[in-house]
Design goal:
The chain is mainly β. The chain has helices spanning 34-43, 120-124, and strands at 14-20, 26-32, 47-50, 55-58, 67-74, 81-87, 102-104, 110-112. Catalyzes the hydrolysis of the adenine ring of phosphoribosyl-AMP.
Length: 128
Amino acid sequence: MDLSMIKYNEAGLVPAIVQDANNGEVLMMAYMNQASLEKTLATGETWFWSRSRKVFWHKGETSGNVQRVKEVFYDCDRDTLLFKVEQQGAACHEGYRTCFHYRMERDGTVTIVGEKLFDPDQVYGKQS
């Protein structure tokens, strides 16, 4: 497949949605460029492009919570990717299984859904 057929934005990035291959739970969303997509396809584990740090990052490199790619899809506009993965541990850097653990209630309050699987300070170091 010619990966240049994917429609990257003006920064050369495309949104990548990551979903649990077994139960369909949406785990996270991050960005990829063509090189990180190539690395993901070559290794079978997810690699992303950090917009803030301007570097590649291998999901789970620090935490051990890797994502093994089972299937890859792109949408009909070719501007969004969907990865169905086998998630080891938590996907969220805050320690939760999914990054989507904040539920907004109709009254404006926020409820945290799910339990923390790890302490981010212990895995990544104390954040200032």
